[in-house]
From TrEMBL:
UniProt PTM comment: Transiently phosphorylated on a His residue during the reaction cycle. Phosphorylation strongly increases the affinity for substrates and increases the rate of nicotinate D-ribonucleotide production. Dephosphorylation regenerates the low-affinity form of the enzyme, leading to product release.
Domain Nicotinate phosphoribosyltransferase N-terminal: 5-131
InterPro entries: Aldolase_TIM, N/Namide_PRibTrfase, NAPRTase_C, NAPRTase_N, Nic_PRibTrfase-Fam, Nic_PRibTrfase_pncB, Nicotinate_pribotase-like_C
Domain of life: Eukaryota
Cross-referenced PANTHER family: NICOTINATE PHOSPHORIBOSYLTRANSFERASE
Chain ranges of the Nicotinate/nicotinamide phosphoribosyltransferase domain: 305-405
Protein name: Nicotinate phosphoribosyltransferase
Keywords for this protein: Glycosyltransferase, Ligase, Magnesium, Manganese, Metal-binding, Phosphoprotein, Pyridine nucleotide biosynthesis, Transferase
Amino acid sequence: MVTPLLTDLYQFTMAYAYWKAGKHLERAVFDLYFRKNPFGGEYTVFAGLEECIRLIANFHFKEEDISFMRSVMPTCEDGFFNYLRELDCSDVEVYAVPEGSVVFPKVPLMRVEGPVAVVQLLETPFVNLINYASLVTTNAARHRFVAGNTKSLLEFGLRRAQGPDGGISASKYCYIGGFDATSNVAAGNLFGIPLRGTHSHAFVSSYMSPDEIVDKSLRSHDGSSTCRDFLSLVQTWLSKLQLSESLRGVFGETNQSELAAFTSYALAFPNNFLALVDTYDVMRSGIPNFCAVALALNDLGYKASGIRLDSGDLAYLSIEARKFFHAIEKEFNVPGFGKMNITASNDLNEETLDALNKQGHEIDAFGIGTYLVTCYAQAALGCVFKLVEINKQPRIKLSEDVTKVSIPCKKRCFRLYGREGYPLVDIMTGENETPPTVGERILCRHPFNESKRAYVVPQRVEELLKCYWPGSSNKPREDLPLLENIRDRCMQQLEQMRSDHMRRLNPTPYKVSVSGKLYDFIHFLWLSEAPEIAPFYKALRWGFHFYFNPVTKTGNV
């Protein structure tokens, strides 16, 4: 799917124009970054780097690709297609923040250096690979933050994802963002992500009566004996529950087709029996039927996994179910039964998790799908890919909207940490500036706001951009980590952030700055590249007073 053709047509038209003008081999530097944190928050998690590196490692146009591009651009010269035929990324260098890192606006996630034409061809696929990956990883991390570290999070989004590739990507990046498992079997196979799943309402409603169960035998957990009629054992336990003093009045006759479905599922999976209990009535049928089957399994040495709630008042039902489990543990002396796992699903999102926490609940695991994988609260991260230098000459992109003004030149990026171990600020410097050092007083300036500045004395300095593809430079190359290691990095990075940067409502903005020298250079280049306007209007734009001498026809600011 991710091939050199996965790009916008204008990348090819620009590449041809570069080639036609003899500029295609000019050395260019591009920054990939985003302008605003998603979901109203103040942090983002970087993901998708591995896929970018795999793309450039295998970047090559096949003959059928060349033929197709000839049909698309029939007026282009043959020499251009010969150029494409030999093109690869052997002269491209990629520097990036490690995948799984917490990142912030304006700071380059990736710096890509190389011949301008080939790097231009990489723009669209790189932005595509980073945009959704970072967005959904951040969404997953936000869900993890709200749920807390003691709850299990299960990604159930495959059926609602934007196509097969969206479903696979969502499972991978939700795992990086802190989810524990996925229902997506293909993702489990590809990436080694733990799989979780039980049954649907269709399985329960497919049974009409216990008479449909043909083979009722079940071997004990230790293999020492066989129960010839497991269904009868289940029914015996259900009768005991109906006569129980502690459960009197909670339920009467349960749905027998549901009991049949639970019994059948337990016969198939005695070691992993987890039942969906809301097909008919949670407290008057689903929970009692589940408990009867779970207690029968317990007699044979098995331990049921728990229940799933997929509708209704999840907080209330989880609390009532927990009371039911505790009552059984106490009355029938079944150790650990009161701690039975309760999983909840049903279109959950960040807001519902927060509401459940405020209400109080007994849920142990959350299955989350639609709002997670579709990033329902925000459609895109908005990554951009901007030229910052060509032929060692810094370039800047100007705009009436200051948030869209790019930060020019090849840069180094550092994270400065305070005494308590929290990150204080990210700072960008020119490539040849002296890097910040521990214990040194450093001026940190807002890139565009004259009045926003601060001095910081860091207790630790971390350089953010590392070489992941050295090209022909022979620089040391970082290895791509395993998925599990990326996930661990993400969790560690999130834990070391200050809580006020992480909170859902009104989070404190994290500071991103430039050095004093880079600030001065940005504004020098800005003035140099801006179209010339009348001195009077230029002075007004910068807030100066302008005095005009009618005799000499000159002015002073």
